[in-house]
Amino acid sequence: MTSKGSEIFYNTRVEELIYEKRDGESKVVGVRLSDGRELFSEHVILATGHSAKEVYHHLAKNNVGMAHKDFAVGVRIEHPRELIDQIQYGLYAGREELGAARYRLAWEDPGSKKGTYSFCMCPGGYVLSSGTDREGIVVNGMSNYARNSRWSNAALVVSVNSGKDFSPSEILSGLEFQTNIEKKAYEVSRAKASGKELPFQTLQEFLDHKVTNAPLPKTSTPSGLVRSDLREILPNFISDHLARALEKFNHQLPGFVSEKALLIAPETRTSAPLTILRNKETLESTTHKGLYPCGEGAGHAGGITSAAVDGIKIVMSILKTEKGFEP
Questions:
Q1: Which residues, including other chains, have CB under 8 Å from residue 130's CB and lie 6 or more apart?
Q2: Which residues constitute the domain of residue 106?
Q3: Which pTM does this prediction carry?
Q4: In this structure, are residues 22 and 7 in contact, taking their beta carbons and an 8 Å threshold?
Q5: 165 with 205, same domain?
Q6: Do both 22 and 119 map to the same domain?
């Protein structure tokens, strides 16, 4: 990167975009950094990721075009890796060359038409606390290259629909929907522990509407667990759809509903709660020239690979505009 003339600034936060009015049009001309420096360019690619909440607030304050979008919310489900391997591989479970087993699950409720599905499955992985707010808890999953943890986990999430599950009256109402769940999780953890431990129920307790005083189970998460009623954290429709879907998933993967399975909450950051609008041809903001919303945080990608591809598309668009370059 640096050999090609690029500069990389570590531990440097972008505080705000720099705006101008040119010929009656709003334009983004640079960024202001946390150390006070200002960097100027005719092209600012905004690729902050979908957890940079302050960016959404900043854009809304400056009337950058955005729109609500659907997303999904739920839990992380964690099983002993041995159990998932046994369900998926049967007699071949335990063979080293097969590695940790994967699964993919989906079910649409015929009444509500809502989907519940597994997401970001982490075989032989870990459940991690990944919140970005001081008083909020968010969980996520990861696997090391070897995928040799004793546990396997995945997100189990329910679709959240704009205009139906949260009000479309405010542009940041989807973000507020996510934040309220994260704050409830923190408050539950803080009331029962230190506020760092992740709220959980065993899968069977969740289905039975019970919270017991049993000893804490073993888990992959380094943050620790706090036994909680997840229905106090998640909206009712999320909990209800999860419960119905889990019964269906147990038919698809017999043994999936197990006393050894844990539900750890909340998984709220599956995707951005809004889209930063852009021109379909130039990929430039529809309201502010010079601004190129990019990747998951802008609502134009759904994962690491698609976000990278989106970045390439934007660079190609800028080259075409400035240099007449055609791929």
A1: 138, 139, 140, 269
A2: 71-267
A3: 0.92
A4: no
A5: yes
A6: no
For residue 104, count CB atoms less than 10 angstroms from its CB and return exposed for 0-12, middle for 13-18, buried for 19 or more: exposed
Beta strands in the chain (DSSP E): 14-22, 25-33, 38-40, 44-46, 66-68, 71-80, 106-108, 115-122, 126-129, 139-142, 151-160, 198-202, 225-227, 262-267, 274-276, 291-293
Question: Do 109 and 85 sit in the same domain of this protein?
Answer: yes
| HSE (side-chain half, CA atoms, 13 Å) at 64 | 31
- Burial class for 33, CB neighbours closer than 10 Å (0-12, 13-18, 19+): middle
140-165 pLDDT, tens digit each: 999 999 999 999 999 999 999 998 99
DSSP strand E in 51-170: where? 66-68, 71-80, 106-108, 115-122, 126-129, 139-142, 151-160
Identify whether residues 7 and 122 lie together within a single domain: no
- The three-point CA angle 51-223-154 to 5° equals 60
**Are both 136 and 197 inside the same structural domain?**
yes
Per-residue pLDDT reduced to its tens digit, 231-282? 999 999 999 999 999 999 999 999 999 999 999 999 999 999 999 999 999 9
Domain count for the chain = 2
DSSP lists the bridge partners of residue 126 as: 142
Instruction: Judge if 252 and 131 occupy the same domain.
Output: yes
